[in-house]
Write a structure and sequence with these properties.
Elements (H helix, E strand, L loop, with lengths): L1 E6 L2 H11 L6 E6 L9 E2 L5 H11 L3 E4 L2 H5 L2 H7 L4 E2 L7 H4 L1 H10 L7 E4 L2 H6 L8 E5 L8 E4 L2 H12 L11 E5 L4 E9 L4 E3 L4 E2 L2 E3 L3 E4 L4 E4 L8 H18 L6 E10 L2 E8 L6 H5 L7 H9 L14 E9 L7 E5 L1 E2 L6 E4 L2 E4 L2 E6 L1 E9 L2 H12 L2 E2 L3 E2 L12
Parallel strand pairs: 1-2, 1-4, 2-3, 4-5
Antiparallel strand pairs: 6-9, 7-8, 7-9, 10-11, 10-16, 12-15, 13-14, 15-18, 16-17, 18-24, 18-26, 19-23, 20-25, 21-24, 22-23
Length: 416
Amino acid sequence: MKILIIGSGAREHAIAEAFHHSAHNPHVIVSPGNSGIEREFETVKLDSFEDIEDYCIIEGISFVFIGPEQPLADGLADHLRSQNIAVVGPSKAAAQLESSKIFAKNLMTKHNIPTSGYDTFTDIDSALAVLDNKKYPIVIKADGLAAGKGVFISKTKEDAANVLHNLMIEKTLKDSGSKIVIEEYLTGWEVSLFVFTDGENHLTSIFSQDHKQLYDDDKGPNTGGMGAYAPVPEAEIYRNEIEQKIVIPTLKAMKEEGYPFQGILYIGLMITAEGPKVIEYNCRLGDPEAQTILPLLDTDFVDVCDAIINHKIQNIDLKWHNKSAVCVYAVCEEYPQSKSYNVPINFSAHMDSHAFYSGVSINNNELVTNGGRIIAITSVGLSKTEARTKVYHDINKIFFEGMHFRKDIGLRDNKI
């Protein structure tokens, strides 16, 4: 068995590791991967859909797992399925749940899926005109993909106007900010849930909790994620309500709209005084949530993916280890505004934790920085406290100039 993973980050490294532990003993290839991933797995550079197709046929790939959102939004899953190549990942149409915030909000409104109140805009004058009537803070989202950096919380009218100017006039996120959503700011606490679905039936994961802001105590700009932990016991009392009011209606709505979702759906939730509400959808495994939940998965991940592909997810007994995992990202000091390049990365000692590589490269046979988020460190323990102790012990064995990480992953007080 050969499995091809599309992507180049720590999430794809964690996915490769999950497949590596399968009883099916697959040969795992990552494209394009990175210099850290290639220490453990074969990597290959494939530049186009046609290159991926040809490689799958020539190499006899059993199935393709698409990690990032961009190739899904571009229609890679559709292309591969049209060539009878098995793939884990939704269609381009279904991926609109992530690639268009407006599509997602309109779908939730039409099908009575609980979410925040919102308005959508395609020109800045109309958007600016409503700012006087808003209750602050408000949330401004770029409609398109923005690598986790398209969400802004504005505490004042002046700040909101500045965000709108940057998105719609300065084009700081290029075309992703040409259309925007202005949302009601929800109060409560956040949690994430993954849905493994074959388009008809589904299973849900344990809960995880991402930490988006750059600094401790949830301060600073939003990022692609600074760390996460799982499970989140406080969320379990809401599971049935989330299933009945959000998961099942979302999958039913997508099918009714003609876009059945086949793959892994991420649902970002806010637990509010009125109950769980959807903050956002992603059309794939999250990063860093994947690095957190996959080490806890007790069911063979190859079997889960095979069931998604062959419409047999109802036959899977999804089990999880009775342990906790904490993931912490080491990032460069310029993140998320800019990236770090060619700064040497040093390890002072062996780590017991998983090191999942993201923004790294090789220069003169030395591992160096090559991005914003550099390495995700994940530790597993019998409790969250044990996992936190292990992960922070190990992340202090890493050093590169300008290295930054949050020191409070997993310490939120999940109360409304």
